[in-house]
Amino acid sequence: MDARPLTQRERAVLEALLAVDFPDVETLRRQAAEVVVVDTCGCGCPSIDFQHGRGLGMEIRVNAGVRGSNGGLFLYTIEDQQRGELLGGIEWVSVEETDPDELPMPDLLDIRPA
């Protein structure tokens, strides 16, 4: 797929996930201004990737449960040998039989650092 800008919902969720404090969050907040979607999950869930490949050192930085559902998501970073820690993407997780077409609204998220 060709790289594309984040949708309004994706941007709002990313900003909500980065609103919590954790080590080096300021660096990730700066990266968020420039991030684009380079891939999506083949299963049809709303997971999005900001980097090609997984790189080294994938690390979950923020978890979020979705109120009123068994679903959730997490924000992860990857370690790039030249550029350091980079926003990797937002991964949707659920035990439901079907997945939503887009990420949930940010006000439905219970967000906490990993």
Textual characterization of the structure:
With 114 residues, the chain is an alpha+beta fold. It has one domain. Helices cover 16% and strands 34% of the residues. The protein is built from two helices and six strands, in the order ααββββββ. Strands 1-2-5-4-3-6 form a six-stranded antiparallel β-sheet, covered by helices on one side. It is globular. The termini are far apart. 25% of the residues are buried.
Ordered list of secondary-structure elements with their pairings:
Blueprint: H1 8-17, H2 25-32, E1 39-40, E2 48-49, E3 56-66, E4 72-80, E5 84-93, E6 109-113
Antiparallel strand pairs: 1-2, 2-5, 3-4, 3-6, 4-5
